[in-house]
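Sanity check. The docking grid for NAP depends on where the pocket ends up, so I'm generating a full predicted complex first rather than guessing from homology. Inputs follow.
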Amino acid sequence: MTAWHVLGVGSLGSLWATRLARAGQPVRLILRDSARLAAYRAAGGLTLVEPGGSSAYPIPAETANATTPIHRLLLACKAYDAEEAVAALAARLAPDAELILLQNGLGSQDAVAARLPRSRCILASSTEGAFREADFRVVFAGHGYTWLGDPRDPSPPPWLTVLDEAGIAHEWTTDILTRLWRKLALNCAINPLTVLHDCRNGGLLEHPAEVATLCAELTELLLISGQPAAAEDLHSEVLRVIQATASNYSSMHQDVARQRRTEIGVLLDQACAVATRHRLGLPHLKALQRRLVAHLTARGLPSH
Ligand code: NAP
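Predicted complex below; grid placement will be based on this.
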């Protein structure tokens, strides 16, 4: 059986690793450094908290410096850490290595693929929700779906059946870029405004004109980027998501509230960079980026 190496033992990485281990799959965790490895060993494993109770999984772990070859790698760090993380592992990747990239937004996937021209990079877009209650203790907060796909090769990998066995709800798609663009547009329409207005998602119902203007600009952006399916009825879906998640704080809001770096670089910055490349004005989107950068800078957080 091919081992699943999981880099990034945060929310999503732990959610995948524990469910794969529970299904009897060989899993190896890759931690940031020897200090994190020692902390993990002291904790005795990963704990997954679910509605039915919590269970501990003593999954073996190592750092990037281990020497065993990697055939399958689940990259579960934040987008801004992805390129550096795979660079540290490149020498261990077998010639037939496959990577599953769980990063949100767009941009980090291309950077990773460019570093590893021989490896297959499968992109993922997930609506599952998880958060870290404590170090190495993750709460499965929201059931969802993970779409997987490879823009360069439409054939599904044979291990998708393993995900079924592990209870990881997923679907293979030949349109993963449409999914990622759509999610990027949703994130750009909602997350920055929740930070600037310091509100839950539902708070945006008090700013309908701002949301509508952004959706119109994002629709223009998706169309000029050759993503008509991702542009379809964007505004209605944004409103639907705002209503369905009214009591939630967006991931960007949570990051700012906890003084953590945001993923603005692969969301709003990426959207604005694509607009500039197409010589598209999009004044409201660009003003939103400037306001968000000022907001982050004022709080001592990275602005990219
Ligand atoms: P997270 O909880 O912050 O976990 C990221 C993990 O990556 C951390 O444990 C971090 O280590 C680790 N890491 C970073 N660089 C590393 C390196 N070089 N070597 C080893 N480990 C490294 O993040 P997350 O919430 O799981 O998010 C991961 C991605 O999934 C993001 O792009 C996010 O937008 C996306 N996503 C998340 C969710 C969700 O519900 N959480 C849902 C959909 C999509 P330390 O612990 O040492 O800092």
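Relevant for the grid: The radius of gyration is 19 Å.
Also worth noting: The longest strand covers residues 93-101.
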